[in-house]
Structures are given as structure tokens and as C-alpha cells.
Amino acid sequence: MNEGNQVVLIGVGQCVQRDVSPDRAKDPVGLMADATSAAAQDSTLGRRLFSELSLVATVDTFAWQPSNAAGLVAEAVGASPSRLVNSTVGGNTPQAYVNWLAAEIRAGKAGTCLVTGVNVVASMMKARAAGVRLAWPTGGGQGAERFGDDRPGGSDYENAHGLFLPANTYPLFENALRARRGLSVGEHSLAIGRMFSRFTETAAQNPYAWFPVVRSAEELVTPSDTNRWVAFPYTKYLNAVMAVDQAAAVVVTSAAEARRLGVPEDRWVWFLGGGAASEDPWNVSERPRFDACPAMSFAAEQAMARAGVTSGDLDFFDLYSCFPVAVELACEGLGISENDPRGLTLTGGLPYFGGPGNNYSLHGIAAMAEALRAKPGASGLVTANGWYLTKHAAGVYSSAPPERAPRREPDPSSARHPQGPMNVTQSPDGSAVVETYTVVCGRSGQPETGIVVGRLDSGERFLAHTPEDPALFEDWMTSEAVGRRGRVRTASPVNVFTPE
Fold this sequence. Notes:
This protein is of the alpha+beta class. It folds into three domains: 3-153 and 242-415, Thiolase/Chalcone synthase (Peroxisomal Thiolase, Chain A, domain 1); 172-238, no CATH class; 430-499, CATH 2.40.50.840. It contains 14 helices and 17 strands. The chain has a ten-stranded mixed sheet. A five-stranded antiparallel sheet has the order 15-14-13-16-17. Strands 6-7 form a two-stranded antiparallel sheet. A hairpin with a 2-residue loop joins strand 6 and strand 7. Helix 1 packs across helix 3 and helix 11 (294-307) crosses helix 12 (324-334). The radius of gyration is 23 Å and the shape is globular. The chain starts with 6 loop residues before the first strand and ends with a strand.
């Protein structure tokens, strides 16, 4: 085996900051430095690791935008890497980083690399509520590389109709999937509750989880004083939790370099293969189907083909879980059950472990490394997702070196919707049908806005809101509205769809 062409993780670290007042809380650099120090200890190299780093990369966080986050982290830990990299927005970034770094290492363009990221929304919100000004560092110098696709998540037309918020947009996919599966609202609600109840069981055992609490399916899906409706069919407990302070770090290098550094082989976790793809069409309103995500399936299939494995060969999964539909579609693409006995998460998932703001999957990778070390010879898959099921990355890891030959990779055309982009009109008028929808609720949990993705009889798609009718909202939140007919008219600032 040519160790120069094999890539391994040699150190992983995580940290969580709870119950700290804003004036005493660590800043983003401090949290990433803590996670990096934990990864250095995990590798057994300790502070020696920092002098060996050739590249430091950071995951974007929308809550904090310094000029060069990677430079700040390198300075904080005393590293002098030749390359600094900062990323664009996207929850796919951590796994996409590992895929890219593996190629850089194999090509001899990078040696030992650090990827780290942080989510500090909890501190930011506490400070705002207390009127505390956070003196977080803003510099870091110049000269960093930029990694990732920086296209915005949606169009002005989509944003005007409320689709800039993930909490409003993912329910459109969920309701379309429910309609395709032919489930009643009640049947579907209980199904996603059962799936995510198992996630809470994992979170309850994770020392880094923000909400380590076991909850039943019924508790997750039933509105209450602590579990308000957010956007149908999702209650608060089914949404990714943003207000957390968490950081993670992963160290990646070649097997040959790991051996030179003297990292014990029981620390090595082998990266067997990665895949990545973006939805085509990119914009949500132009995608022909809301109940399918071919790019997600392609990224996972590509990773498994390069690793020479199938989903049946894997021992562990950590599937990106910002909302239930992301997990459901991932399971469909992998051909596994939503109650697969192997489990679908190693962290507890974004609603219970926490961590949106782009860095969640770095925790997933760290948790995967720990699980694999505890089970010699095992392998696992991590998936990651950015924007609105828009850009995807996947990676296969193992506690044993690669033994299987790569399989034939999937046809790249399978990453695209075969129908091509939809013809979307911004000025609809006439008879129409609901393709998918959601009802958005306010902070009180009361319905406020109905969002419709519809089709005119001509086949053109449109976006619209419904009239603010409490009876309509109640009806659409208790029985199927996909397929209902009505009339749409162009209006400002949003189009209006009135059901028959």
C-alpha cells in the first residue's frame, strides 16, 4: 500500500460552552482554539502538532465575520502554516473540506491540515438580550484562500415570498414527500416523530449535545407551551437548534506523514472516499420536484463507490438532520430504512445535538472517528447539506485501511433532475393547483402565513401566499392541501392564491 496516497484523520476535538454570561464567555477564536487543542491531545502529539500544520482551514459562521478567521486560529495556537483557508456559507462545508484536503494531500500540495469551526449564536443572543457589546476579534491578516460555492441560497422572488428562511423552506419538501407517500397528516407526523425520537436517545448520551433529553415521538410532534408550531408540519422540536456555543476540529494528513510524526496507528481513521454535488437547478423554485433530491443521493453514491462499499457494508451513519425531510430523503437515496438498527446519527442530530451555522458536520466527523476507533474494522458514512437541500458532500471513513477496490462511480447525470428547470412565472394569473405548501406560525405558535408553490393550468410554476384566514390555516394543517385547486393573482409584495 502506498501510504502517500492514503489519507487519515489523526486527531479530533470538540467543545461546548454552556451557562456562561456574555461578559465571561469565550469568543469564537477561543472556542476553536480549545477544540484544536483537544484534537492535538487526541492525536497524542500535543502542542507539537501546531508546528507541523501546513494548512489551517475554518468553516464560515454567519454570526461572526472577521477578515481572516483561519489566521486568527493559527495565531491563537501558535501555528505558522503556509496556507490559510476560509469558507463560504454552507452546512456541506466540513465534509467538502475533507474531500478537498484529501486531494490536496495526495497531490503533495498540503501536509498536515487542520479544519476547525464554531457556532456562537447562543453567546450572540445572550449578549444582545443583556445589552453587552461583544469585543470579538475582527482581524487575522490577509492572504487567505477562499473555499466553496458562494452563490446565494435563493432568488429575490423566492426571498420575497419567505423562502430565505430554512424553517419556511424545508416544510415545502416535507409536505411534498408526505403527499407522494400517500400518508395522512397524522400518520406522517407520527412517522417523523418516531424517527427523530431515536435521535434524542443518541443526544441524551452525548456530552457535547445542547439538549441531552430523550423525547417521545408524541412529545416531538405535539404542539405545547414549550414546543410551538414553527412552520407546518414542523414544531420547534423538529427544527435545527441555532442558539448554541459549540466548536470542533479535525486534523487530516497522509498515512506516511502520520507515521513520520509518530501518531499511534490506533488513532488513525482512514478516509476511504468522498463525493459532492449541488442541486441542478440550484434555486428551489426552479426544481422540478420537491419530493426528491438527486444531488444528495449522487454525493453519497460517489463517496461509497470510491470507497468500494455499499450502504449495506457500513456500520455507522451520521446523516445531516437539519429537518426530518433531509434524513428521509437521505435514507431513500441510500436504500436504508428510517428505523435502520445501525442508527442514523452519532451526535444526536441538529435539533438535539445542535450546530447549524455551517459547522455541524465537523462534529459528525469527529463523532464518526470516535465510533470507528472503538470498533476495529468498521466503516461509516457522513453526509452534509448546505442551503435548502442545495449543495451536498459525503465521506466514507474506516478504522481499517482500504481493502476493497473502488466501484464504478454513478453517472454524473444522475445528480440532476432529468426534467430540467421549471418555467417559473413571477406574474401568475388564473386557475391553479397546489404543488406543495406550508403554514408559517409566529412566535406565539399561531398561524400567520400560508406559502404556496403552485402550478398554473399551463404548467408554469409560481410562488404565492394565501389569504390570512384562520379557518384555511387550520384546514391545511390537519388535512392534505397538496392537489387542491384555486385561483392565483399577481399582487405586491407577494402573489395571492385563493383556494376554491
